Amino acid sequence: MSKQTYITTALLVLASAVNAADGNSVIKDSERRIKSATEKTIYRMELLDGAGQVQQTRGIELYYKKVEGTETTLFKFTTPPVIQGTGLLIVDGGKPVNDIWMYLPATRKIRRIAGSEKSNWFMGTEFTHEDFEDYKTSAYSFTLDKEDEACGEQQKCFVVTASASDAAEKEASGYGKKTYWIEKQTLYPVRIDYFDKAGAPAKRLDVRKLAKSGEYWRPQVYEMRNLANGRTTRLTASSREVDGKLDDFYVSQRYLRSE
Asked: Where is the Uncharacterized protein TP-0789 domain (predicted)?
């Protein structure tokens, strides 16, 4: 290798390392800014067809609690009666692959979701089980692609691409990579682009109507659009409480299977 080639290669490696470090810092700053200790949110869920027409409306509640490094999130359907009581429990204890459980009232049993199943669709929506997970900084590397990109009405975003760095997560995930659009003022991810294992665009999540809830920014609306079939799942918050008192019961397997 010539001296010039060696220097060029070294500079490219250095630039790549700096870029990755910048991406990591943006994600970690975002995580610190947006994560509360507890949260309870009630959503109206709408399932829209490819023409944008609402096909079904559901009610779903979310509970979240962070205690001593473990973050637990529980989703539970409240309406319609045919799916009432169905729920999902995600426990993030810092391991590369989170623990996920699902409860179906028809069977009255809690079933653990294997890592290979977390890319499965969730209850006929355009979300998969893994879409409810957070950044998972221990299992991904982050590259800053752009620092001042337009991202909505009078907004500027960091654009950060996430790629699985952990072998187990890389195998379990249904995505080849994810690109986060993080609004610079709030550090909230206002858009996420999902790419399949072949690198083709698969889905897009947009969040709208950011507003303060206590000390934290939260969106009023989430819209997950499947680019293959055009269908969309929309979540609209009807009530939200952040950093309130939340009993451990609401993020437990006991509450998951309660009806």
From this structure: 70-257
pLDDT in tens, the chain (259 residues): 554 544 444 434 434 443 444 899 999 999 999 999 999 999 999 999 999 999 999 999 999 999 988 999 999 999 999 999 999 999 988 777 789 999 999 999 999 988 778 899 999 999 999 999 999 998 999 999 999 999 977 789 999 999 999 999 999 999 999 999 999 999 999 999 999 999 999 999 999 999 999 899 999 999 999 999 999 999 999 999 999 999 999 999 999 998 7
What gap in Å lies between CA 196 and CA 139, rounded to an integer? 18
Q: For residue 179, which amino acid is it?
A: T
Full set of structural domains in the chain with CATH: 3-256 (2.50.20.10)
Q: Are 180 and 26 in contact (CB under 8 A)?
A: no
Residue 104 class from Cβ within 10 Å (0-12 exposed, 13-18 middle, 19+ buried)?
A: middle
Contact 162, 177 (CB under 8 A): yes
Question: In whole angstroms, what is the distance from residue 58 CA to residue 168 CA?
Answer: 33
Instruction: Please tell me the distance from the alpha carbon of residue 149 to that of residue 151, in angstroms, as a whole number.
Output: 6
Supply the pTM of this predicted model. 0.89
Give Cα separations from 234 to 58, 111, 223 (angstroms).
10, 26, 4
